[in-house]
Write a structure and sequence with these properties.
The complex is a heterodimer of chains A (392) and B (316).
Chain A lengths: L3 E5 H10 L5 E3 L7 H12 L6 E3 L4 H13 L4 E5 L1 H7 L3 H6 L5 E6 L24 E4 L3 H16 L7 E6 L7 E5 L3 H7 L16 E2 L8 H30 L6 E4 L6 E6 L2 H14 L4 E6 L1 E3 L3 H8 L4 E6 L10 H10 L7 E6 L9 H13 L9 E3 L6
Parallel strand pairs in A: 2-3, 2-4, 4-5, 5-7, 6-7, 11-12, 11-14, 14-15, 15-16
Antiparallel strand pairs in A: 1-8, 6-13, 10-12
Helix pairs in contact in A: 1-2, 1-6, 3-4, 9-12
Chain B lengths: L6 H8 L17 H13 L3 E5 L3 H6 L11 E3 L5 H17 L9 E7 H6 L2 H10 L3 E7 L25 E2 L2 E2 L8 H7 L4 E5 L4 H13 L4 E6 L3 H4 L6 H10 L6 E4 L2 E4 L10 H5 L10 H26 L3
Parallel strand pairs in B: 1-2, 1-3, 3-4, 4-8, 7-8
Antiparallel strand pairs in B: 5-6, 7-9, 9-10
Helix pairs in contact in B: 2-8, 4-6
The chains are: A alpha/beta (392), B alpha/beta (316).
Chain lengths: 392, 316
Amino acid sequence: MAKRVGMEVAIAVAEAVGQCNIDMAAVYPITPQSHIGEHLSDLVADGRIDAEFVTVESEHSAISAVIGASGTGARVYTATSSQGLMLMHEILPIASAMRLPIVMGIANRAVSGPLNILNDHSDIIPQRDSGWISIFVENGQEAIDVSIQAFKIAEHKDVNLPVCVNIDGFQLTHMVEPLEFPDQALVDKFLPPRVPYATLHPDKPLTMGAFAMSDYFTEIMKAKDEALKNSKKTILAVWDEWAQMFGRVYKPVETYKAEGAEILVVTMGSMGETAEIAIDELRAAGVAVGLVKLRLWRPFPFAEIRELLTKAKKVLVTDRAVSFGGPGGPVCGEIKAALYHEASRPAIYNYIIGLGGRDVPVTDFIAMVSKVAGEDAAKVVDTYEFLGVREQ
Amino acid sequence: MNIVENFDLFAPRLINKKEFFSAGHRACQGCGEALAVRLMCKALGDDTVIASATGCMEIVSSMYPATAWSVPWIHVAFENAAAVASGVEAGLKSLRRKGKIADRDVKVVGMAGDGGTMDIGLQALSGAMERGHDMLFVCFDNEAYMNTGIQRSSGTPMGASTTTAPAGKVSMGQKTWKKNVTEIMVAHNVKYVATACPSYPLDFIRKVEKAKKVKGPSYIHCFSVCPTGWRCPSNQTISLGRLAVETGMFPLYEVINGKYHLSADMPKKLKSIKDYFKTQGRFRHLSEDEIDMIQHRVNTEYKKLLNKVKCLEAWD
């Protein structure tokens, strides 16, 4: 077993990307992503990795440049946060429609305004329908592992889609954690060089990014949807292979003490570990509560969610973003959609928490579960609540 | 003897016979830009990858499932052709260095219209040029957003009537002077900067060939007559391009390592801009005073250019 080292997670993500024999990276500075880009440039400057590091003048150009490089057949990486991701927004669906493998680390951060540099999920949520595979990690080890797995998934011949790895900004990116880096020889075995299906090269000229009107556009959109849905098979196969080679198991949805739970709490991202402590305390106090942690945001794991949540009487969904004037929390909206056709559905309660870096302590989870435990499931109101809001 | 007047005699021997931008694309009759793109490709040859911005040349050439391109070509969006080209260049450079592709020079070329270069694409272009990618960027300037319906851009000349800066009872149309992006590129210390026009095909081809040889960034600003947007007869494309040059509205010059050189096709004495304006509907509304005001500016700008040529000659 590889040696454990103490390292800041953002640095570790750059180290992990450095293990992947990338050919090109384009990164623009933004808090709290910057340590990823800085350390990646260190790796290039020290000759530890042989890659072009393009110091672009904006995130829009970062994503544009990695698209261009991915088009040549290069293995490419970029990383961003918040406003940077919002600036990339225009280009994200083009990357997926062009079926170009790209890996992007996202240090999730609140979107302005007001300006805020701390963590929530309001940056990735607006990118939900861009056609990217979107995976959330919960701790530093997962950030390392998924950053490496992401290349294999993105470049797989049955996928050819961009993948983003969501790493909660500050709460996770800036934590120093004990981490284990996979052995380089094993990474090389797990992740062979990219075999592109088409490249921008005079040896075989082709046109990428053509113009398509109503006679082809719908077909192309359906193809993208199918590709994203089909990617789940490859994601599962890649996680199986990872488990066999490195011993760490990854699933689209993780559970914690969910067996026999009447109330299931749903989290996405780094809050899962805090929620686990609350579950332990509540279980010790005799509350039949468990935890469901969403790792795969896109493609959305409908089957797993249905299988798990229909067993509970009540489901408490936490969201770190708001769909203003809509169904409340975006994660909760998806979960309700997943359960609608089930004969037996749990009552669903939605809490908006942890916006703009607001701390969500164990006591918050206990308070939410206690409140939900006291509700009459037959009288559930289809609404959502901002937890702990000061009204004055 | 003027070489262009003897085009039939010289062209077959001097121009690459291979077509990289095929016939059958959907450009308008008399499109100066399509002609310029065709000539550019001939000058660039096989070992080229093009990154194009959204715009006329993109939509007329790449209607899925057909393509007019027989060089590798990528389009992503409107404002990012230079950024995409940066990535293509970086990707090819890395793959070549690492032995993953053949060790062969491939020129990366970014292209956009005046909107995609001078307005929405200026940031990406500035970034790419400043970073020093081995890349040629060509602006095909037809002086307005023609693809979306002749809206004004910062490349639209003073006095031209467009659909968003129309001439009216209290307006002369465009009220601003054309942005000089060529000078902005010079200010980036780009090694080779040139202006060109397909009405002078051999001059344009030679400039593209020179730019191709530069290791690092180079920029060509190509004046592209648009009969649809300028409201002129489509058989006037070549002569209007020549008049733009002969009147000093669009002088042809090169800036090589910071030194200005006037192109050989520039006349000793400029013609009146009235000769250039008279066949174009976009200038038809201009009064004598307004034309005089524009003529004065053209004279001044041309004098400034000649002074730069002289001044830098004196450095040698």
